[in-house]
Amino acid sequence: MKRRTFLKTGGLAAIAQITGMSTLSALESLGHSLAPSTRMPALFIGHGSPMNAIEDNEFSRSWKALGKSLQRPQAILCVSAHWLTNNTMVTGMSHPKTIHDFGGFPKALFDAQYPAPGSPEFAQMTQQLITASHVQSDDSWGLDHGTWSVLLPMYPAADIPVFQLSLVYNQPPSYHYEIGKQLSKLREKGVLIIGSGNLVHNLGRIDWHNTGMVYDWASEFDTKFTNWIDKGDHASILNYQKLLGTTATMAHPTYDHLLPLFYILGLQQKNEKVTYFNDKISMGSLSMRSMMIS
User: Fold this and answer.
1) What whole-number distance in Å separates Cα of residue 294 and Cα of residue 39?
2) The dihedral of CA 210, 54, 146, 106: what is its sign?
3) Tens-digit pLDDT profile for residues 33-63
4) Fewer C-beta neighbours within 10 Å, C or N terminus of the chain?
């Protein structure tokens, strides 16, 4: 019997009953038994417009190339800017739905589906690993466009299990950063962790004519964060609102699209480097800068 089928048919409970272990101990045993994997990289991806999911452009092409170049993950965990909850949640269903959480786009985008399986086993492992917060399992959300708009070009076959972790908006950057640190063991189990947002995200100031202009505050915020990341100065990043003041407010009138970055930075190990891609500001106020930690 395959591992996924075994788990779906109550494998954890069976282990616990036969050996006398608690279900939690059985889950730990499962974690040790997974096939060994080299450490997966961690990604922060500026996802921008959901149209990138179905358009052939420089951003979608870079995501396609990335999917072909990376070691195939055993599962993908995405922390999306578009799932905000009062408590930290993880999707635990076997078959997450594709959520079209937007409006005003062509029918072709609403017709797009990403029928990847879920990963109840890795969702349970995630609940076990995170001690900075009480993580609850969710069976109602699915995959929002912060997740599937990126994964559709990256892994178009939709045959890799995908699950999501929610964002608690009213928590400080340190809260999200600490949870990221606690997810590091998933990378050793073959899980590709993606933070999906934007380094600069001000929809109210978008240049809809796409003239190529870039706001000074957008450029300043993008540059400052990049310099801090390059220096490994996570302390300044976590204190960015105080250090950047009005520039921070302009770059993120709401900071939901920045929060996923803190998870990815929390995953960075001392010996790991950062490489950037899609490092441009689009439509004046959307930084598409993305990065890989490996």
Assistant:
1) 8
2) positive
3) 455 568 999 999 999 999 999 999 999 999 9
4) N
- E strand map for the chain: 42-46, 75-84, 89-91, 136-138, 162-167, 191-197, 200-201, 274-277, 281-282, 286-287, 290-293
Its pTM stands at 0.88
pLDDT at 7 > cutoff 80: no
Look at phi and psi of residue 232 and say left if phi exceeds 0, alpha if psi is from -120 to 50, else beta.
left
**Any idea what DSSP says for residue 258?**
T
Element (H, E) at 239: none
Residue 277 three-state SS: strand
Taking residues 202-208, report their average pLDDT: 96
Q: How many CA atoms lie within 13 A of 203 on its CB side?
A: 7
Instruction: Name the nearest CA neighbour of 218 among 207, 229, 228, 209.
Output: 207
- b/e burial code for range 3-20 (CB count within 10 A of at least 16 → b): eeeebeeebbeebbeeee
What the chain holds in terms of domains, given with CATH numbers, is 1-33 (no CATH), 37-293 (3.40.830.10)
Task: Please give the pLDDT value at position 28.
Answer: 53
114 in Cβ contact with 200 (< 8 Å)? no
Residues comprising the chain, all counted: 294
CB contact burial 119-131 (16+ within 10 A = b; e otherwise) = bbbbbbbbbebbe
